[in-house]
Amino acid sequence: MWTIQIEDFDDWRSTARKLIGNQVSPSDVQLFDRDGQQSLFGDLPALGETSGATFRVSRKFVSLAQAVSYHRDFNRWNLLYRTLWRIKNEQPHLLEIETDSDVHRLIQMEKQVRRDAHKMKAFVRFRKVERDEKEYFIAWHQPDHRIVRRVAPFFSRRFKGMNWAILTPDESVTWNQQELHFGPGVTRSDAPGFDELEDLWRIYYANIFNPARVKVKMMKSEMPVRYWKNLPEADIIADLLTDAPKRMEEMIQQHEGFEQTAINFIKQTLNESFTLATLKEMAIECTACDLCREATQTVFGTGPVKAKVVLLGEQPGDQEDIAGVPFVGPAGKVLDEAIENAGLARDKLYLTNVVKHFKHIATNTEGVLRKKKRLHQKPNAREVRCCRPWFDAEWSCLEDAEFLVCLGETAARAILGPGNKISEVRGRLLSTDYCAKTIVTWHPAAILRSPRESHRQEKMRELIKDLALAGV
Amino acid sequence: MTQLPIIQRKLSILADAAKYDASCASSGSKSTRKESQIGSTEGTGICHSYTPDGRCISLLKILLTNYCIYDCQYCVNRVTSDTPRARFSVDEVVNLTMEFYKRNYIEGLFLSSGIIQNSDYTMEQLTLVAKKLRTEYRFGGYIHLKTIPGAAEELITEAGLWADRLSVNIELPTETDLKQLAPEKKKTQIVGAMSGIKDKIDEIKSDRESGMRPPKFAPAGQSTQMIVGATETPDNEILKTANELYTGQRLRRVYYSAYSPIPHADALLPGKSPPLVREHRLYQADWLLRFYGFDVNEIVVRKDKNLDLEIDPKLAWALQQRGYFPVDVNTASREQLLRVPGIGARNVKRILSIRRHQRLRTDDLKKLRVAWKRAKSFVITEDHNPALADLDRGDLKQLIAPKEKQLTFFDTFDAALKGEL
After folding, report:
1. Reduced to 3 states, what is the DSSP secondary structure of residue B150?
2. Contact check, Cβ <8 Å, B103/A162
3. CA-to-CA distance for B353 and A62, rounded, in angstroms?
4. CB contact under 8 A, A207 and B265
5. Contact A164, B45 (CB under 8 A)
6. Do A19 and A110 share a domain, yes or no?
7. B271 touches chain A (CB under 8 A)
8. Nearest to B15 among A93, A207, A417 (CB)
């Protein structure tokens, strides 16, 4: 029985070459780590140099052996030699038989080293320190196997432009932006104990976690607990888990918006679809959003079912709310004038609004009677979404409609999508999902609100011009 | 939260808002960009941490802002939500990415955004972050940019110059679903954006093949995400959409995200736990589609057009197609082996390699860690396999199906990661 001390992979490779060349059977030799057990049997007698015809092994074996050489198992050099011997003398394709017990064990060891190396790449946490106005990034890490030399080149590629050091109990490595230096192992107290950025990192960690999906087993299998002591984010795991059920419950309990939309009020069967008349009836009962509470009544669209031109506004105003008919107040008067000047007839048009109830706030006006005045308020996106099925249903009844006029931004966004600005889309013929000929123009109320007479006149001219396109 | 300094508050809001994006992959870019000083991409990504939901942290996944003019109902950031809002500046995102990266917390950046002003403006801001990281900081780490629906093609093209991966969310499996829950998004527009990216990737590739040296363009390709369980659409429709995207747009990955309850949820969406088992089965079916030679039309075998939740889709198929079995592991083709329940793609490779030298026995299969319980009634081995007698039994499903076991997210993730069925 011979014993040989092995320093590293290259040493093993040259030793194994000589042993194979001298036909030394694996049962006659014991290979040890140099820093391991001292030889009990004395050194190997000089082996004869083998002839120049060196043998080849597959690249697969070399890569396997390299990985295994970093493993802590003291028997790895012997196992590698025995496998090499068997490949040379018994079965050249031994590595392909993964069910063989030697191959199986080597592959297991290789996997463990690979995994450990991968976890080192993942779990090293640098802490920044400044010395002599220079930044250094220093990490303390405890790998399972002696993998520092295997992994260090990765860090030098990744953090090329940084001065860094990784300290472990077995070995340490530093990079000065030029080359790697390896040194002895150190203790944890040699590494910095703090980095102010870690608070920010923990905030990120806490907020990217979804408490609706707690899977602790999965987390622990990929991030084993033994690594936690060197991971700043692991400090808050216990707290996150304690709070998770409560947060999840809150997420399920808390709702926003309305529980229904107009869809819930549109009744139809397979045999009997709705008409404009039945829709109008159904809309009276609509309570999908909260606007119905303060409004007098639903103001549904009006006009002939055969209408070729459809005008869509925002919502009824004060007088419309009382009359129950769209466009009968001051804005309605402006619209009437524009319609006439554009050469259209109001009774041939279908007029309606995106939102069917009047949204407003009540304020007290000055004066003897202290009469309450109702001020128009713009409907929000939630209310628009809620009410929109009414217009969709109206539109589906208007089979002859070939021209859709959106009056103002609320109508324009309901038809064209959010983000559209009236100043950018006004006056151009557009093709939309609703209608191949869609046009956006001023809402008559916008004309009324314009502070200057010249602006009012210009907008009125544009409204007339845009409406006239529908008459062509 | 108000006592937090401003950057902490922004980070907490904009990370919280980003967590519903399933993708965290940082793989696919085979070589590091030249001129990089900090950062590398070498093919496979690294998961730097895991949160208690079992998901990995690979990238700093944040939104530039969660202000949004859109109203997608499954989304916490929709315009009609009362969620607190914040907006990062371009420099804040750049600094955060660099500082986290230098401490080895992350592989890079996954940046998405709510839509502010309009699609083009938002896309420009996202691109600016990536450009600054690459050109001013010589950052070589991974960058995944979410493209903004409706952004101009040339803006997306510019984004592809700086990013490793681009993605366009398909969001929901069908046009009808989109109409119902994301009224402002259109399938044609979404698929159009994907196809624009695909064309550009092809163009760069053909330039390279003809000897030119074109700039990098989204070297890690494109991916997408589909929300599952927010509408009634069955699994076979979901898989058909995924298949169209794999074949038509050559996506690298389709992520399925079980609709999870969100804070500030819209009242129209019923609150419930996410259907994790369904998500898991979809990932398994997705692997059958891509790596096991299954056609999209044969994977879903149930009449209700959904996958069986109790057993994996390969086993479900095998139970329906008993005539295909038994398969002899010592003589069967690769295609046949891939269809055996419990034998994954990697084990098929191992079996083909081993049997060139020796015949396989049942013990060999167990040693390879084939899922023997699922496989045993479908395979012929060198020695006697008594379980083969069960192949034609009517109650075979009950014999094999796991007993009332709560499926954990571990299984889900495992399948999504390794794809061994």
Report:
1. coil
2. no
3. 19
4. no
5. no
6. yes
7. yes
8. A207
Chain A residues whose beta carbon lies within 8 Å of the beta carbon of residue B274: 212-213
Same domain, residue pair A214 and A297: no
- DSSP conformational letter for A216: H
Instruction: Please give the tally of structural domains in chain A.
Output: 4
Cβ contact B52–A214 (<8 Å): yes
Spatial contact of A448 and A319, defined as CB atoms under 8 Å apart:
no
DSSP symbols for B298-317: HH--STTSS--SSS-HHHHH
- Of the candidates A80, A119, A370, the one whose C-alpha atom is nearest the C-alpha of residue A223 is A119
- Cα–Cα nearest to B257, from B18, B21, B17: B21
Among A119, A151, A174, which residue terminates a domain?
A119
Whichever domain contains A422, its CATH number is 3.40.470.10
Q: What one-character DSSP code corresponds to residue A363?
A: E
- With beta carbons under 8 A apart, name residues in chain B contacting A233: 49
Q: Which of A396, A362, A388 is nearest to A376 (CA)?
A: A362
Identify whether residues A298 and A365 lie together within a single domain.
yes
Residue numbers in A near B109 (CB within 8 A): none
- Taking the CA of residue A401 and the nearest CA in chain B, the distance in Å comes to 22
Provide the domain limits for residue A235.
197-253
CB within 8 A of A29, min separation 6: which ones?
A1, A2, A3, A4, A19, A44, A78, A81
**Do residue A209 and residue A249 come from a single domain?**
yes
Say whether both A335 and A390 belong to one domain. yes
Same domain, A114 and A128: no
Q: Digits of tens for pLDDT over chain B (421 positions)?
A: 444 679 999 999 999 989 887 777 888 888 899 889 999 999 889 999 999 988 899 999 999 999 998 888 888 888 888 889 999 999 999 999 999 999 999 999 999 999 998 899 999 999 999 999 999 999 999 999 999 888 998 999 999 999 999 999 898 999 888 888 887 888 888 998 899 999 999 999 999 888 888 888 999 999 999 988 888 899 999 999 999 999 999 999 999 988 877 777 777 665 666 677 888 899 999 999 999 999 999 999 999 999 998 899 999 999 999 999 999 999 999 999 999 999 999 999 999 999 999 999 999 999 999 999 999 999 999 999 999 999 999 899 988 887 655 444 444 444 444 455 5
Which of A233, A253, A273 terminates a domain? The answer is A253
Q: Which chain A positions have a beta carbon within 8 Å of B262's beta carbon?
A: 251
Q: Strand, coil or helix: what is A125?
A: coil
On whether the CB atoms of residues B106 and A204 are closer than 8 A, the answer is no
**Short-list B129, B198, B139, CA closest to B159:** B129
Decide if A108 touches B, using CB distance below 8 A: no
Rounded Cα distance between A159 and B312, Å, is 43
A294 and A431 in a single domain? The answer is yes
Is the torsion defined by CA of B40, B62, B252, B126 positive or negative?
A: negative
A336-345: list long-range contacts, CB under 8 Å, 24+ apart.
A337/A460, A338/A444, A338/A460, A338/A463, A338/A464, A338/A467, A339/A467, A341/A464, A342/A464, A342/A465, A342/A467, A342/A468, A342/A470, A342/A471, A343/A468, A343/A471, A344/A309, A344/A467, A344/A468, A344/A470, A344/A471
Other CB atoms within 10 Å distance of the CB of residue A2: 16
**A146 and A291 fall within a common domain:** no
Nearest to B16 among A207, A215, A219 (CB): A207
Q: Which domains does chain B have, with CATH numbers?
A: 6-225 (3.20.20), 319-404 (no CATH)
Q: For residue A373, give how far its alpha carbon lies from the nearest alpha carbon of chain B (Å).
A: 28
* Calculated CA dihedral for residues A224, A228, A230, A233, nearest 10 degrees: 120
Name the residue in chain A with its Cα closest to that of B7: A200
Q: Is B5 on the interface with A (CB under 8 A)?
A: no
Q: Strands A2-6 and A29-33: what pairing? A: parallel
CA gap B272, A251 in Å, rounded? 9
